[in-house]
TrEMBL record:
A GO term from the CC aspect: glutamyl-tRNA(Gln) amidotransferase complex
Nucleotide-binding among keywords: yes
Lineage per the UniProt record: Bacteria, Bacillati, Actinomycetota, Actinomycetes, Micromonosporales
Key word ATP-binding present: yes
UniProt cross-references to Pfam families, sorted A to Z: Amidase
First and last residue of the signal peptide: none
Active site feature: K52 (charge relay system), S127 (charge relay system), S151 (acyl-ester intermediate)
GO biological process: translation
Function: Allows the formation of correctly charged Gln-tRNA(Gln) through the transamidation of misacylated Glu-tRNA(Gln) in organisms which lack glutaminyl-tRNA synthetase. The reaction takes place in the presence of glutamine and ATP through an activated gamma-phospho-Glu-tRNA(Gln).
Protein name: Glutamyl-tRNA(Gln) amidotransferase subunit A
Length: 452
């Protein structure tokens, strides 16, 4: 049924870069046979799923929506893919994204943008716009995204889906093509909070192949989602960040979020205002740290190891082949990040830019820690504006970067955060973001499920 739905609507939505119909049918048949043999199956066995094209899938094209990886088929599966397969889930295909996960609209995909199913003239968010659009358009019931600065939550918000970013290190990065290694976090994109918790449970937990994976059991997230669904939030303290209040959410977005918070209060939650004085520096700190790590990580695309190779004709030196390949293979936003990052890391500037940004990161982490001494979770709009029309933010990078104003602090800290649908503004979805302390992912699921 999902393959039929993809065939019917993906010509318009363009959520997928690659559909693996044969693989999906084979995986579904394997689950049927296992069931016939009386094998014990997990709760998501047989459920289809779409995978962001930044996750390595054995034998299935993985491009990161870049020309430089065109035609690359990984020889191995990411850890989260191994777990998805072991759970008997059925991969439908790979979803569109901003190139190397850099962007907030999927307009930076080298293969053309994804359209928002709510309004085909508008962006589905990014970088994981393909995963969110696939779920919103009923092409897939579940999807995987990755969140470095908001790429699960912001697409979730603007497509009316649930986007969950686990605690950094709570889901494995092994086999996730690295953008900014100290921030990258894979997680679920779904239609309900319980679905997100169930999928999180499949993919999460310690992985010895990822050195930053947390060697501790996952919190009881599915239980927390079920508890939240009972609709009782008595005793839960919800923090509003004072410094977010003045910062430019559209009036319609602010109003929808206010209503969602009132709904939480009706369920028994107590609202407390907290101060996080360094959040205003999160965006500039992120745009030094993330490009710095990206410039280092993307050095591996050297025309030798993967995909594209340009100028290998006996007329060019090795260095020329590398630079011709990178010139042709990377899009403009990726090049902008590589240049920014290389500059920030260069000797003489390192302390002034990268070093300074790391200090700001510590201050932001301290803001979170102080806030969580007063409250259980923090809430905010997920993103300041509803889905915007194509082309309206591409001419000024800063306008695009603003989409992640509210999501980025959490990435710098490493805590979990989830975006849940919170009504409409001008007929378009708004998301409420719920942030929790590191390794307290259960708290955000409880509050999120109550709102549903
Ligand atoms: N929009 C942010 C960026 O462009 C976040 C991307 C992400 O989370 N992958 O870097």
């Amino acid at each position: 049924a999902h393959l039929d739905r993809i065939a019917a609507v993906d010509g318009q939505v363009h959520a997928f870069l690659h559909v693996d119909a044969e693989g999906a049918i084979a995986a579904a048949r394997a689950v049927d046979s296992a069931r016939a043999r009386g094998e014990k199956l997990g709760p998501l066995a047989g459920v289809p799923i779409a995978i962001k094209d930044v996750i390595a899938t054995k034998g299935v094209p993985t491009t990161c929506a870049s020309k430089i990886l065109e035609g690359w088929r990984p020889p191995y599966d990411a850890t989260i893919m191994e777990r998805i397969n072991a759970a008997g889930m059925v991969m439908l295909g790979k979803t569109n994204m901003d190139e190397f996960a850099m962007g907030s609209s999927t307009e930076y995909s080298a293969y053309g943008p994804t359209r928002n199913p709510w309004d085909l003239g508008r962006i589905p968010g990014g970088s994981g716009g393909g995963s969110a659009a696939a779920v919103a358009a009923y092409e897939a019931p579940l999807a995987i995204g990755t969140d470095t600065g908001g790429s699960i939550r912001q697409p979730g918000a603007v497509t009316g889906t649930v986007g969950s970013k686990p605690t950094y290190g709570g889901t494995s990065r092994y086999g996730l093509v690295a953008f900014s290694s100290s921030l990258d976090t894979p997680g679920p994109v779904t239609r309900t909070v319980l679905d997100a918790a169930l999928l999180h449970e499949v993919i999460g937990g310690h992985d010895p192949r990822d050195s930053t994976s947390i060697p501790a059991p996952l919190p009881a997230i599915v239980e927390a989602a079920r508890l939240g669904a009972t609709g009782d939030l008595s005793g839960v303290r919800i923090g509003l960040v004072r410094e977010f209040a003045g910062e430019g959410a559209e009036p319609g977005v602010a109003a929808a979020v206010r209503e969602a918070i009132e709904a939480l209060v009706k369920l028994g939650a107590e609202v407390v205002e907290v101060s996080c004085p360094h959040f205003e520096y999160a965006l500039p700190a992120y745009y030094l740290i993330a490009p710095s790590e990206a410039s280092s990580n993307l050095a591996r695309f050297d025309a030798v190891r993967y995909g594209l190779r340009v100028g290998d004709d006996g007329q060019h030196s090795l260095e020329e082949v590398m630079s011709l390949t990178r010139e042709a293979g990377f899009g403009p936003e990726v090049k902008r990040r590589i240049m920014l990052g290389t500059y920030a890391l260069s000797s003489g500037y390192y302390e002034a830019y990268y070093g300074q940004a790391q200090k700001v990161r510590t201050l932001i982490t301290n803001d979170f820690k102080a806030a969580f001494e007063q409250v259980d979770v923090l809430v905010s709009p997920t993103t300041p504006f509803v889905a915007f029309p194509f082309g309206s933010r591409t001419s000024d990078p800063y306008q695009m970067y603003l989409a992640d104003l509210y999501t980025i602090p959490t990435n710098l800290y490493g805590g979990p955060a989830i975006s849940v649908p919170a009504g409409l503004s001008e007929g378009l979805p708004v998301g409420l973001q719920i942030m929790a302390p590191t390794m307290a992912d259960d708290r955000m699921y409880r509050v999120a499920a109550a709102l549903e």
